[in-house]
Specification:
Elements lengths: L12 E4 L15 H6 L1 H7 L3 E4 L3 E2 L11 E5 L6 H13 L3 E7 L8 H8 L11 E3 L8 E2 L7 E3 L4 E4 L14 H15 L5 E5 L22 E2 L10 H11 L7 E5 L8 H5 L7 E3 L24 H16 L5 E3 L8 H5 L7 H12 L4 E5 L20 H12 L4 H9 L40 H5 L5 H14 L3 H6 L1 E4 L7 E7 L6 E6 L5 E4 L7 E4 L5 E3 L2 E4 L4 E5 L1
Parallel strand pairs: 1-2, 1-15, 2-5, 5-10, 7-11, 10-12, 12-13, 14-15
Antiparallel strand pairs: 3-4, 6-9, 8-9, 16-17, 17-18, 18-23, 19-22, 20-23, 21-22
Length: 561
Amino acid sequence: MNIDRNWWKNKIAYQVYPRSFCDANGDGTGDIKGITSKLDYLQSLGVGLLWLSPVYRSPMDDGGYDISDYRDIDPIFGNMDDMDELIREADKRGIKILMDLVINHCSDEHEWFKKALADPNSEEAGYFWFVNSKDGAPNNWRSMFGGSAWENVGGDRYYMHLFSKKQPDLNWENPVLREKLYDMVNFWLEKGLGGFRIDAIVHIKKMEGLPSGPADNPDGMVGCFAYARNIDGIGDYLTELRKRTFDNYQCVTVAEAAGVPNEQLVDYIGKDGYFSTMFDFSYSEPYNYGHGWHTCKGPGEWSFRRWRDTLYASQLDTQKIGYGAVFLENHDYPRAIQKFIPEKDHCPRVQMMLGNMFFFLRGIPFIYQGQELGMTNPGFTSIDVIDDISTKNHYSLAINDGLEPEKAMKLVARYSRDNARVPFPWDDSENGGFSASGVKTWLPVHPDYKTVNAAAEMSDPNSVLAFYKEMVRIRTKSEYAEVIQDGVFAPILKQYDKLIAYTRTLVGKKRLAVICSFSDKKRKIKLPFDAGALVLSSHDEYSIEDGVLTLLPYQSVMLEI
């Protein structure tokens, strides 16, 4: 079989959070038919890959990342016929569907886990990490959502859950389980998927002996990362997964692979790597929240240079080995402008600068729904409207640390995952055109939907959406497309603070420079090259005199060299 492994490199990827994209049946929750109805919008944006957060059957304890049936669609999203139609209709428009593959854990309502609970000696009991312990939890690992990573099910019997207690970890040491997972992956690929974004995959291997560690907080527990992330031996599982599934199809695989050491990048995304590409999260959180979100530093309070150097290092390390996946936003983070820019400076031009900064890095760019509109955090004021389990945990941590509820909510809401999960605003009608009038949506509609919506921006040549369309055109269809796709990344102008600047170079092609100011002041930058044509600017005003570039506050430009 002649398989082109790199067909995806010139594509633009777009992530949809299905519950919040478009509600076709008027029940307040987005669905698959709603996504299908908006394929023309995605095609007009220039999307070639469409990643769906999970639509499998699930009790939705963690937004669908707790799967109770891998081979079925949850009724809130529709049915398998709807999914097959989406794949077909997307194909007609040159868009390949990527599903979320969640195989570190499943739901405690999965049939496997129900059988495991009912009979400790069943085959299914071996699919999970059950341990008998007479002295309480088998170790002191803390789950990623807080509290012990172990749940008692009666007597001395415990099971491991690195995430929610409703997400028991699957035991990849069990070969029967692995075969069942491979069969499931092939079931979906046979339907014509473009591939998968693979969730939490670096956690499938646990440290031998499941040892306790030194406590890192007053709760006496230790974060589970050192004991259940990128553990020696994980490569055997990942190689087997690739050979039994992905290698047999013309698919793309995008790993959520946080914490992979640089020396192991070649194993993950090299020529014979486990995956096609991967997300690097080293630069996604410039703040270090440590104990809880309420301890985070806000924009301007953390070291810009350290964050910038981390971004540069990611680009430089990755390009030596393979092709990365670059992003600013996804379903697990607040809107990017809230992370990087003080609130007093928020405006559409700043959103354009942020887009320009990430979109021309080396790697396939992922746009998250609403990012192309310049959506911001909605400003949650009550924990009662929050759905996200992680946000509720961080709110409880803040309250337990003695914060007043109003202050705790203000701080925690800044980083809530639900900031990016509110309904997509299609127009200025009631519910933003996401759902029918008079319907209560599953999360509140963004208060700015009257002005920040797709319809308004499609008719405005100066909108954030128009800017994103121009970036897509430059990246995929202009004379610069090849250098942006394959050119070498190199940082420049590092002597300037609050500036991200880099070049993209490909032998025999035009050379480009991207320069983005994170300063709220007008500034002059001495260029280390002779500037040619202006390719793109986030602002209308543009000036270069005697080799000195004048940048307005938060301006970005892309220039020929």
